[in-house]
């Protein structure tokens, strides 16, 4: 599991959202979001930005380049 997928799951659970709920919020299909969280696919830069904005963390944090959100 990649740092991104681990952090996505951690943040999703922290915000008490189901995968399908978060997919809707981020304007993604459920299967696309699920693949990101399972580390099967890498999101585009614009998707990472939407994720970071929703969770109020930096893109660097999501990508594992920083340990502080």
From TrEMBL:
Could you tell me which SMART domains the record lists for this protein? HTH_XRE
Classification via InterPro entries: Cro/C1-type_HTH (IPR001387), Lambda_DNA-bd_dom_sf (IPR010982)
Any Pfam family matching the protein:
HTH_3
The record's keywords, sorted A to Z, are: Coiled coil, DNA-binding
Identify the residues that the record assigns to the HTH cro/C1-type domain, covering every copy.
Answer: 8-62
Keyword Iron assigned: no
Q: Which residues form a coiled coil?
A: 1-28
Q: DNA-binding: present as a keyword of the record?
A: yes
Instruction: Provide the protein name.
Output: Helix-turn-helix transcriptional regulator
UniProt source species = Pseudoflavonifractor hominis
């Amino acid at each position: 599991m990649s740092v991104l997928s681990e952090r996505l799951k951690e943040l999703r659970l922290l915000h008490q959202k189901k995968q399908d709920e978060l997919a809707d919020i981020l304007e993604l299909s459920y299967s696309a979001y699920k693949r990101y969280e399972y580390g099967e696919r890498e999101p585009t830069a614009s998707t990472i930005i939407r994720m970071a904005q929703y969770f109020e963390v930096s893109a660097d944090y999501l990508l594992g380049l920083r340990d502080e959100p």
